[in-house]
Design goal:
This protein is an alpha/beta fold. The chain has 15 helices and twelve strands.
């Protein structure tokens, strides 16, 4: 590497280091700008390249105009924060730049991924099984649907559907990725059936069984139930033990989307929420949601050894998958992807840095933040607590004068909060029209003081709207 490139990399890392250092103390999480304004900032792609100093300056500009997801007041999505060890793994995996298709090209990271998978399988109570890292929880839910199809009839992989009478069941609160998966797999979105949920957002098992029995009577073939541990909006955990009994009765594959709620694996106080996870046929788990790794750190885990290869194998690819002593370690033979990043490395370095007990302490910290926020909101008459479970706290804000619908007022406050930029919290709308703040706690940088400040800013914003 030339001396000039040494200087460039040094400048890049100094820029990133400064961003990391300043983001935790900056006044704003985001400065909202319209797309047309940001387009003016972006330079045109030119025929000739630019020098290193210009690139570094452009990098600074990009950082300055982006959402600071590592900021402690970023509580908008189901991820956030920064961890140095995990980030080191992210940088190293990009530098190594292997494809995870074969052991030959990715020996160390293949072993690391398999070791993490085996550890997670054991934690979930799967005595035997297998797993693989995927491009997100949505991809894992898709893979579950494909495995359920294979489990029902392995020949569908070659012959395709002889009919379109399959049915998949999820709760009304399930992630929208199941709808996409029904489309991609050919099962059809009209055959993805939403099972009613109770007021807590939990699937109602009696309704599930009633619908399955009626579908069978009408000639449909149930092949999968997608339960959820930690729904996106309410943080609800479906009653998997009861659902598992129904799946066993009707011989249906049970998948649990624990992308969000799976973080309770690394917890003492919330581990009980995962009751029945060992009864699932497959599980989605995202380490980037609650453990602090960068996007994407997602896993598909199943108790059925061999199902991944039966589902995903295809073609010969002799040029890639050579027959030699280590060929059984090639993960490309049971992955949907060929080119696959070494995402395991960031989770590995994080886990090695903290140890299992350290990760438990980190998870207990964000769980305590959720409990603290719930108490502060419940005790303040200006707020109306809608729901609190796991790491989700849902609430509305009252105007001082009872002159406006609380739903429309809450939405106005949230939008004004976003423009203010000092904190970033999302909102959600239920089927009955209820609009509320959806405050979530994946960010390990957040402390109780930040929560108190957030609630203060929300009330200040509400008052400002009333005066305007």
């Amino acid at each position: 590497m030339s001396h000039s490139k040494d200087q460039f990399l040094n400048d890049v890392f100094l820029t990133l280091q400064q961003y990391i250092r300043e983001s935790g103390n900056s006044e704003k999480v985001v400065t909202v700008k319209r797309p047309d304004a940001l387009k003016k900032i972006l330079p045109a792609i030119s025929e000739d390249g630019v020098n290193d100093q210009t690139l570094v300056q452009e990098l600074k500009t990009i950082l300055d105009h982006s959402v600071q997801t590592i900021h402690p007041m970023f509580l908008n999505q189901l991820f956030g924060g920064f961890d140095a060890a995990a980030w080191a793994g992210e940088v190293a995996s990009t530098l190594l730049n292997p494809t995870m298709a074969t052991y030959e090209i990715a020996p160390m990271v293949t072993l690391i991924e398999k070791r993490i998978v085996n550890e997670l399988l054991e934690m979930m109570g799967f005595e035997r099984g297998e797993g693989i890292m995927v491009t997100g929880g949505s991809n894992s839910n898709l893979l579950a649907m494909l495995c359920a199809r294979t489990d029902y009839n392995p020949s569908i992989r070659q012959t395709g559907f002889g009919h379109n009478r399959f049915r998949v069941y999820v709760s009304a609160e399930a992630h929208y990725s199941f709808d996409k998966a029904a489309n991609i797999t050919g099962i059809g979105t009209q055959n993805l059936i939403q099972v009613p949920s109770n007021d807590k957002g939990e699937m109602i098992p009696e309704e599930l069984e009633r619908i399955i029995a009626a579908d069978i009577k009408d000639g449909y073939v149930p092949i999968m139930v997608g339960a959820t541990f930690g729904t996106t909006v309410l943080g609800a955990f479906d009653p998997v033990p009861k659902i598992a009994r129904i799946c066993e009765t009707y011989k249906v594959w049970l998948h649990v989307d624990a992308a969000w709620g799976g973080g309770a694996l690394f917890s003492n106080s919330a581990r009980h929420l995962l009751k029945g996870i060992q009864l699932a046929d497959s599980v989605t788990f995202d380490a980037h949601k609650t453990l602090g790794t960068p996007l994407i750190t997602s896993f598909f885990l199943t108790k059925h050894s061999g199902i991944l290869k039966n589902t995903n194998r295809g073609g010969g690819a002799e040029y890639l998958f050579h027959e030699y002593d280590n060929s059984e370690w090639d993960t490309g033979t049971y992955s949907l992807q060929c080119g696959r990043r070494a995402d395991a490395l960031k989770f590995w370095l994080l886990w090695r840095s903290y140890g299992t007990e350290g990760l438990i302490q980190r998870t207990e910290h964000i769980l305590e933040l959720a409990r603290f926020a719930t108490k502060e909101i419940a005790e303040n008459p200006r707020f109306k607590l809608i729901h609190s479970n796991y790491l989700n706290v849902c609430f509305q804000v009252h105007a001082r004068r009872d002159v406006e619908n609380i739903n429309s007022f809450t939405l106005k406050v949230r939008n004004a909060l976003l423009k203010d930029g000092r904190a970033m919290v999302n909102y959600a709308t239920r089927a009955d029209g209820t609009v509320f703040f959806r405050l979530v706690f994946p960010n390990h940088q957040t402390q109780k003081g930040h929560i108190s400040e957030l609630l203060k800013i929300i009330l200040e914003t509400a008052d400002r709207i009333e005066i305007a």
